[in-house]
Amino acid sequence: MTPKLNTDLLAERMIISYNKCMTQLFIIHFLGSMEIFILTGMAYDRYVAICKPLHYAAIMSRQRCNTIILACWTGGFIHSASQFLLTIFLPFCGPNEIDHYVCNVYPLLKLACTDTSRIGLLVIVNSRLTALVIFVILMVSYFLILYTIRVYPAESHAKALSTCRFHITLVVLFFVPVLFVYIRPHVTFPVDKVFALLHAIIAPVFNPLIYRLRNWEMKALREMWCHLVIL
């Protein structure tokens, strides 16, 4: 999505072929839904680490981690394949211009020269259920974490919250635009492009930065740079 967007910004005519459009649709939903499932797996990891610290090594074994990763890939593929199959068989015989910078389901439904009300309903159910169920699971996991740490000493309480705040930041950055775009009925608004930019480009760009800031290598690097600046 990002290379094509950068290319279109420099081009006089913004064109994408049908095959590339369908490929972009599949990949965006595959990676986006996989990101949602990964955030869920990370929430489970944080829950076990904070609520059951003595059993963490036994519960989050290498086999369990591999199973979670495989489930994220499988869930992403199933969701993306369903969105892809609902769209690829639509007949496009009229206008061929979408009011978006990415091939997504809702803009493509507007171009189809057939009644898309049933397909739009299936897309809503698919995306809405995925987003809502995962969001509820994330909220429940953090409610359990907050409920557990309420009896912790102040230092342990602050450490537990520090462990979660980066994950919560990414959940907010990712889920707020996703819920806005996919929870409502299948209509499009101009602001959709802004929200698509947030969850498809901005949030992934911040991923490595946010998670690396806690690593001891990055902390050591920051201390070194501060020392050099003082010198």
Automatic annotation (TrEMBL):
GO molecular function, one term: olfactory receptor activity
Signal sequence, start to end: none
One GO cellular component, as annotated: plasma membrane
Ranges of residues in domain G-protein coupled receptors family 1 profile: 1-211
Main location, first listed in the record: membrane
Pfam family, one: 7tm_4
Mode of membrane association: Multi-pass membrane protein
Domain of life: Eukaryota
Keywords tagged on the record: Disulfide bond, G-protein coupled receptor, Membrane, Receptor, Transducer, Transmembrane, Transmembrane helix
Subcellular localization(s) per the UniProt record: Membrane
Membrane-crossing segments per the record: 26-44, 65-90, 129-152, 164-183, 195-213
InterPro entries the record matches: GPCR_Rhodpsn, GPCR_Rhodpsn_7TM, Olfact_rcpt, Olfactory_Receptors
Family per record: Belongs to the G-protein coupled receptor 1 family.
UniProt protein name: Olfactory receptor 4P4
Classification lineage: Eukaryota, Metazoa, Chordata, Craniata, Vertebrata
